[in-house]
Amino acid sequence: MLLFQKKVKSIVSFSIVLLLSIVFLSQPHLTAYASNEMPGYENPQDIIIASPKNNYTTTGSKVSILGACDYEYPLYMNGEEIETSGYGFFTVYVELEVGKNEFVFENNEVINTLTIIRNKVSTSSGNNSTSGGNTTPKVTYKEYQNDVYGVITSDYAMPRSKVSESNVNLMPLTLGTTSRILGENGSYYKLADGTYVSKSSIKRYDKTLEPNKVTKASMSKDTAANQLVIELTMNVNSLYSVSFEGQNIYLKLYDTIAAAKPITKGNGIIEKVTVNTDSKNKTKTYCFTMFDSASIYGYDVNFKNGVMRFELKLPVILKDTKSLVGATILLDAGHGDYDNGTVGAMGVYGPVEKDINLNITLYTKQYLEALGAKVVLIREDDTFYSLSNRVETIRKVKPDISVSIHGNSLDYASDYSKASGFLTYYSYNLFGNLPNVMNNSITSELELKKRDPRQSSLSLTRLTTCPSVLLETSFLSNPYDYEYLIQSENQKEFGIAIGKAIQGYLQGIAKQNDQVYVVKKGDTLASIASKHGITIKRLAEYNRIEDINYIIVGQKILIP
Questions:
Q1: CA geometry: angle at 283 spanning 282 and 286, to 5°?
Q2: Does 2.30.30.40 match the CATH number of domain 148-205?
Q3: How far apart are CA 321 and CA 557, in angstroms?
Q4: How far is residue 236's CA from residue 308's CA, in Å, rounded to a whole number?
């Protein structure tokens, strides 16, 4: 995986012009005329039907038609004038009769006919049917009578509470996680905790799984990665779950009969550790209680050589209150290369989602780097990366925040004109209320209609390494949103607004760089406090020093 950190290219605002020029030249039936009013857009002397495709077949009773036309002239459908945006973009929600439906569009003596075929819905008895008439076989749960266990083979496996639905509140399982398999339901195995995991993500063994024992436990700070690391030595890479409640972090290990406790002294984050035993269900649950002033902003679990590494991400440390020096930010421009994402009113003849996403991302990067942040891009050009590649990169980089930038759309059966505007998606609102901070900041900055953030099971937000959100800038399926988004000036404004939201979030949760004082012979806590102009009480509390009369030579004291 390549991590791109080059400077923003000067061609950002030119990219739409170039793309349109190439596309129009490759389509001889289109004639384009440049518009002085909107740089980067060329007015087609034709009617473009972006969606659906001609001879589209459906069982639905209604469908949205999306397209563009010569904006100097009115547009008619079956003889009736229909509304267009200022630059000729349009959508119309039409009713369909069973059979062949023809829609004739006319614009400046150009005619384009769209045919949509509506089929009858199949009503075959004895089967569960989809709207298209395809049958869905009934699947039932089969409990195993013999001992079986499995090992997670994917980097990130997403458990489900039920086969039929994805529970967004369940945390992912990492590579190597090992669990008893209780049974199966279709293409899913049921694990020891009652959740289901896809068979494609687990290797099955028809053997008895031995009980897990945690024989050694340690806790240490990884300063370079800004995290607290808890290492548990165990004979089985135990199935686990992680949950949070106030200042408590719970790590539950399944089929575990012994659990050593780590020493907490001197870490400054975890005040105490307790282990709760559930003999009936054969679980051991670690409860890590943080100091009142401590907080974490992500976690990850890895297994290697018989050790579970439980990493707790600490608050970003910034150089000062005004800059973002010290922050690492990952930006993910959705789609790329052959994956266009959604298309707008111009279809493939104009900017598509992947282009808009990238331009906004580059403007965001430019804003953040000016504040001193380290910005890592999943892609900086028209390159495709799979969802698993993107998640892998985020887990490797361990950024202070991950933001995915996308454009929204509706399916054909929906009324495109009814959906517009900005949306924030998240999976877990565990770390600093990121979804609301981002949502409120961006909608306020751009004076957009405010909607509550939406919880959803998305690959780029169902990771726990760091706080993460996915932003849907606007609906490309809405002609007016599309017209707004393809303009370079608006892309820049959106990029800056996203940058400001990230800035506000990170500065809100950040710790400033503390000065470190190394205790010398003859020092007392009182003399150190006096030298730095703070109280003894403040210095003691900040460093978790219980006895103010006891410090040792070489001890490092943080000066807040």
A1: 160
A2: yes
A3: 22
A4: 9
CATH, domain range 515-559: 3.10.350.10
The token duo for 369 is 């780097």
Give the phi and the psi of residue 23 in degrees, each rounded to 5.
-65, -45
Q: Where in the chain is the domain with CATH 2.60.40.10?
A: 31-118
* CATH code for residues 318-509: 3.40.630.40
- What order do you get walking across the sheet with 248-254 strand by strand? 240-245, 248-254, 283-290, 270-278
pTM of the complete model:
0.83
Tokens of 266: 């001197």
CATH topology of domain 31-118: Immunoglobulin-like (2.60.40)
Q: Which of 452, 339, 467, 318 is nearest to 403 (CA)?
A: 467
Quote helix, strand, coil % in the chain, to nearest 5: 20, 35, 45
Distance from the Cα of residue 51 to its chain's centroid: 28
pLDDT tens-digit profile, the chain (560 residues): 333 333 333 333 334 444 444 343 333 333 333 344 566 578 888 999 999 999 999 999 999 999 999 999 999 999 999 999 999 999 999 999 999 999 999 999 999 999 999 999 876 554 444 444 444 456 689 999 999 999 999 999 999 999 887 777 789 999 999 999 999 999 999 999 999 999 999 999 999 999 999 999 999 989 888 999 999 999 999 999 999 999 999 999 999 999 999 998 878 899 999 999 999 999 999 999 999 889 999 999 999 999 999 999 999 999 888 999 999 999 999 999 999 999 999 999 999 999 999 999 999 999 999 999 999 999 999 999 999 999 999 999 999 999 999 999 999 999 999 999 999 999 998 888 999 999 999 999 999 988 999 999 899 999 999 999 999 999 999 999 999 999 999 999 999 999 999 999 999 999 766 677 889 999 999 998 887 777 888 888 878 788 889 999 988 888 87
Residues of the chain with CATH 3.10.350.10: 515-559
